Amino acid sequence: IRFPRGEALDIYEDNRSPVIYGKSEILKRGMKIAVVAVGACVKLTEEIDDILLENGYDATIINARFIKPIDSDLLDDIAKKHDLIVTLEENVLTGGYGQSVLSYINEKGYAADVLNIGLKDSFIEHGDVGSLWKANGLDGEIIANKILKTTINTTEILKSHINAGKFEPVYYESVVEHGKVDRVDLYEDPDDGKVYVKIIDY
After folding, report:
1. Structure confidence at residue 158 (pLDDT)
2. Is 20's pLDDT higher than 70?
3. Helix (H/G/I), strand (E/B), else coil: 43
4. Cα–Cα distances in Å, from 30 out to 18, 105, 110?
5. Under a CB-based contact definition with an 8 Å cutoff, are residues 200 and 182 in contact?
6. Cα–Cα distance for residue pair 111/108, rounded to 1 Å
7. Confidence band (pLDDT; 50, 70, 90) for 201?
8. Kind and range of the H or E run holding 157
9. DSSP letters of 118-154?
10. Nearest CA to 81 among 111, 51, 114, 117?
11. Closest CA to 138 of 102, 101, 91
């Protein structure tokens, strides 16, 4: 979807940083969930973040700034520290930014899951921006609910990751025996460089 006019981004003003070629901008640091938005979609992250906070998730919010070259340093960092990476773009998903992120995460063997949100490869009729965005799923509330629905499945995802050897668990009996967790801690051991998962059932 392309339109000639729009508004300048005026959110997260305290965390804005100078533009550096090929580097993304971290607007807010959080845990577990990282939302990486491209272009005009960055403005949706404010509502998404508010809804996630209401549901107990303090997400990291990132302005991708550059589609290519991909910011591999940033992806390495967030993949080690988050369970879920969400890409958000006003672009067809096939061959888009999100697909590049997914390929990179898989190639590097990171355990983080990736949720790509964008446009389907189909004709979009003319109309006002707000209506077209919502009709095509680019709406803060719709996106936040998709993220929450994905996050609800964290227990099953973690179990599959443990079984596949992606994590070396410190303690995970609660997930195996009860199928329920109260807190999940991910951390990287500075000695061996491996990412460990610690699941605690209170």
Report:
1. 59
2. yes
3. helix
4. 21, 19, 19
5. yes
6. 9
7. very low
8. helix 154-164
9. EE-SS------HHHHHHHTT--HHHHHHHHHHHHHTH
10. 111
11. 91
Rounded distance, CA 80 to CA 107, Å?
Answer: 14
Predicted confidence (pLDDT) at residue 9 exceeds the cutoff of 70: no
pLDDT beyond 80 at 99: yes
The residue type found at 26 is I
63 Cβ partners below 8 Å, 6+ apart? 9, 24, 25, 27, 37, 42
Which residues have a Cβ under 8 Å from the Cβ of 72 and sit 6 or more positions away?
104
Reading the block at residue 108, the tokens are 């590097």
pTM above 0.85, yes or no: no
Whether omega for the bond prior to residue 190 falls within 30 degrees of 0, making it cis, is: no
In tens, the pLDDT along 136-191 reads 678 888 899 888 888 765 555 556 655 665 554 443 333 434 444 445 555 555 56
